[in-house]
Specification:
295 residues, mainly alpha, Na+/H+ antiporter like fold
Length: 295
């Protein structure tokens, strides 16, 4: 990709998308966590511990090349995308819980993502491969995630009408930008794309399936009701792949590291839709839950 596009336009476009995420959030979304502490805690543990461990195991078991392994770990460390809220709405998840999870996940990721990526770099890359996530770059990651979200929240707080007007255009922009960045990454690596897909395709497909299944069934094992478990599943299964690709291209300056997120973006919407349809079909054959007690 052109260096100016990578260093200027990508972060700017991502910032606009993260502002759009902030437009959907309020301080009440963070405060609401206290109403469902069990569901939030289980979902965050799945996101930060279980999925990161599974991504690491997939890298090892499938013997992914070092750069692609770092890319998969970067994807695992990325928070849920705002599209998770849409899937939660379509497939009868707890939308309020989903929004709260997106809010707190985005804040936590500003701190955990650099730690996980630095671990992946030190573990998978040899000393000769000069890719690091130093303190200045960590601040860059923090600013990419937190600052635009905060701006979006301020706009919603002080100008609700403007927030409503901007919400839909920014959602459309987010989809278009995701498609363009995937195409750009593929074009930049067109000579290696076939090899990359063959190497990382199975890993990303398995990771997507694991993310959705863990996001739903682990909360259910802890007694969390189906509606909240669906919210957890979509929050955990639909990663912010746009963020992962932008960090790979602008902060780590490596197109190969962006490939797992690019391939995952293709799988996740298909698998998430199929997963939601299966949950709805299965729910039709099970007794209706009495969901009166908060988790």
């Amino acid at each position: 990709m052109n260096s100016q596009i990578i260093t200027i336009l990508l972060p700017l476009a991502l910032a606009i998308i993260m502002v759009g995420l902030g437009l959907e959030l309020t301080l009440k979304d963070f405060a609401r966590v206290g109403k469902h502490p069990k569901a939030v805690l289980v979902a965050l543990c799945c996101q930060l511990i279980v999925l990161t461990s599974i991504a690491f195991l997939l890298c090892k078991l499938l013997a992914l090349p070092p750069l692609l392994a770092v890319g998969l770990m970067l994807l695992a460390a990325s928070p849920g995308g705002s599209t998770a809220n849409l899937f939660s709405y379509l497939f009868k998840g707890d939308l309020a819980l989903n929004i709260s999870l997106t809010a707190i996940n985005s804040v936590i990721a500003a701190f955990t993502l650099p730690l996980i990526v630095n671990f992946a770099i030190s573990h998978f890359l040899q000393d000769g491969q000069q890719i690091t996530l130093q303190f200045s770059k960590i601040l860059q990651v923090f600013s990419i995630i937190i600052v635009p979200v905060a701006i979006g929240m301020l706009i919603r707080h002080y100008s609700p009408r403007l927030s409503e007007k901007l919400n839909k255009p920014l959602r459309i922009f987010a989809v278009i930008f995701l498609v363009l960045i995937i195409i750009g990454a593929i074009v930049a690596e067109r000579q290696n794309i076939g090899e990359y897909i063959s190497q990382v395709g199975i890993a990303t497909a398995l990771f997507c399936i694991c993310s959705l299944c863990i996001g739903y069934f682990v909360p259910r094992l802890f007694g969390i009701n189906s509606t909240q478990a669906r919210a957890c599943a979509f929050e955990i299964g639909i990663h912010n792949s746009t963020l992962a690709m932008t960090i790979a291209l602008t902060v780590l300056m490596n197109t190969a590291i962006a490939m797992p997120a690019a391939v995952y973006s293709i799988f996740m919407y298909i698998f998430a839709a199929l997963f939601g349809l299966l949950l709805n079909k299965f729910a039709a054959f099970t007794p209706t839950e009495v969901e009166t007690q908060p988790n």
